[in-house]
Design brief:
heterodimer, A: 243 residues, mainly alpha, 10 helices, 0% strand, B: 230 residues, 9 helices
């Protein structure tokens, strides 16, 4: 392979005027992390609501829940981001659309919302599976104690369901981080976009991508370890992952 | 809301969208699914093998691929494949590789990691006694796998494999980042040429939705049909 390796590239000044190529990668990492965190918060919020709705009795609840999940699951994430970024501002009343377009960091907000809603369908499915895996006696016991539906979910079903679905939620959290890279198509300058920029400025394509790869692996590792700690600290003794 | 919605732009570009664009997408999906399944099955067999180091290599590959974003992997291979081609053929300059080939290699290698996990679950769902029975009949490893274990594993995992293929179908839209003309790429080119982003992206979303929704319904139907009663 006649490729000129230059691992010192990261400590050379970047053409942006301030900082080195390494600083560029770090700024990309910051955007990846911030976008993923906001998207994950949105995904959890709507995912929990929809997940609960899907386990409620009644035809309307089932319809709303399954429409939500099918809508966000059956359109590629990239297309959804394009819809949020290019289409939604046009369909809103003119003044609103303009306001959205002029928002500072528009790609960031769009990406967080788009990825958040996309992931919410997956979180909802996990939570539904978690709630349905509980023995039906638990719901009945809650009702028999005189709890309202809300209280049954709050004090009986959800605390257990969340613990059951922690492992799959971990992989959904990892997916959220990975999916932020799709947002480079709408101009979010996250980690992959930064690696790509380094390649364009310096032609050191493999160093840039290797660095990005290692950073993604480290972020993954950190999330996995954090979730393991969480799993251990909320484990119910004598149950599932309990001691 | 839909005043000024231009349906003509969609109608005029239908042949381009579906023959060029969707043709590319479907071709890439099918070839990548078949290639990914074959490679994934081999990786699953490696992972369950009793030969030392092989399981670690397979697990390392699967975990590595699964912790990287697909967009980054697409970029990796887009730049790496010409150099690999040069190394393999011994040419004196990086090989020219078409976008389709590069994308296909990427998706086969990437999806293999996901198919491998599915096939591993499928293989592990076969009772041990069947393998033992196969050996007792005098079959060798290859015969036990190809005529006893894998056919059943494939059948048990068929719904999951097809669901993964639907995800793959959606993921192929990411070849947009290396400017290939898949269905979304075609829609996006028309959208930018005619300044009709709203119409084209809504139409693209609708087409993806209908295809994926119907396909996932079919898979669910298949699941109830092929389920083996035990």
């Amino acid at each position: 392979m006649n490729y000129n390796w230059n691992w010192g590239i990261f400590w050379e000044a970047s053409p942006e005027g301030v900082g080195t190529y390494f600083d560029m990668l770090m700024s990309g990492l910051r955007w990846t992390v911030v976008t993923a965190l906001l998207a994950w918060a949105i995904a959890l919020f709507f995912g929990v609501i929809i997940g609960v709705i899907r386990t409620l009795p009644g035809r309307w609840a089932a319809l709303i829940g399954s429409s939500w999940v099918e809508l966000f699951r059956n359109i590629p994430l990239l297309v959804q981001l394009f819809l949020w970024y290019f289409v939604v501002p046009e369909l809103l009343p003119r003044a609103w659309g303009l306001a959205i377009k002029q928002l500072p960091n528009a790609p960031f907000w769009t990406a967080a919302i788009g990825i958040g809603f996309y992931m919410s369908a997956r979180v909802a499915e996990q939570l539904r599976a978690g709630i349905q895996s509980l023995p039906r006696g638990q719901r009945m016991a809650g009702m028999a104690l005189g709890l309202t539906t809300l209280q049954t979910y709050r004090y009986v079903l959800l605390p257990m369901a969340f613990r059951i679905i922690l492992p799959p939620l971990t992989s959904e959290a990892l997916n959220t981080i990975k999916n932020t890279s799709v947002a480079l198509t709408i101009g979010l300058i996250e980690l992959t976009a930064r690696a790509r920029a380094i390649q364009e400025f310096s032609f050191q394509v493999f160093e840039a991508f290797t660095a990005a790869t290692i950073i993604y692996l480290l972020v993954n590792l950190a999330v996995v370890m954090l979730m393991r700690m969480l799993e251990r600290s909320v484990a119910v003794p004598g149950y599932i992952a309990g001691k | 809301m839909f005043t000024g919605f231009d349906f003509n732009v969609i109608q005029n570009s239908l042949p381009y969208l579906f023959i060029d664009g969707m043709g590319f997408t479907v071709m890439l999906t099918l070839l990548a699914a078949v290639g990914g399944l074959i490679l994934g099955t081999l990786i699953a067999l490696m992972r369950l093998s009793s030969i030392p180091i092989l399981p670690q290599i397979a697990a390392g590959y699967v975990n590595f691929m699964r912790s990287l974003p697909l967009v980054l992997v697409i970029f990796w291979f887009y730049f790496l494949v010409p150099y690999i081609g040069q190394w393999v053929t011994g040419a004196d300059r990086p090989m020219r590789v078409g976008g389709f080939t590069s994308a296909l290699i990427t998706f086969v290698l990437f999806e293999a990691a996901y198919f491998a996990e599915i096939m591993r679950a499928g293989i592990q769902s076969i009772p041990k006694g069947q393998v033992a029975a196969g050996y007792a009949l005098g079959l060798n490893y290859r015969q036990v796998m190809t005529s006893i274990v894998l056919p059943q594993a494939l059948r048990n995992m068929l719904p999951v494999l097809l669901t993964q293929t639907i995800i793959l179908f959606q993921d192929t839209s990411l070849v947009y980042v290396i400017s290939l003309t898949d269905f979304l790429g075609a829609a996006s080119k028309v959208a930018q040429r005619d300044g009709r982003l709203v119409e084209m992206y809504i139409f693209a979303a609708l087409v993806y939705f209908v295809i994926c929704f119907l396909a996932s319904r079919l898979v669910r139907h298949l699941q109830t049909k092929t389920a083996i009663l035990r």
